[in-house]
Amino acid sequence: MDYLKLLYLPVFVFVVSFLVLTIIRKSLIKIFLKFAEKTETALDDIVLHAIRKPSLLWIFALSLDIAINFSKIPTQYISITSKIIRIIIIISITFAFGNLAGMLFNTSLKEKAVPIPNTGLLQAIIKVTIYVVGLLIALNYLGISITPIITALGVGGLAVALALKDTLANLFSGIHILVEKAIKVGDFIRMDNGVEGFVEDITWRTTRIKTVQNNFVIVPNEKLVQSIVTNFDLNDKKVSVPIKISVSYDSDIDKVEKILIEVSKSLIGKVEGLVADPEPIVRFNPGFGDSSLDFTLVCYAEEFKYNFLIQSEIRKAVFKRFREENIEIPFPQRVIHMKQN
Question: Ranges for the Mechanosensitive ion channel transmembrane helices 2/3 domain (predicted)?
Answer without folding.
Answer: 125-165
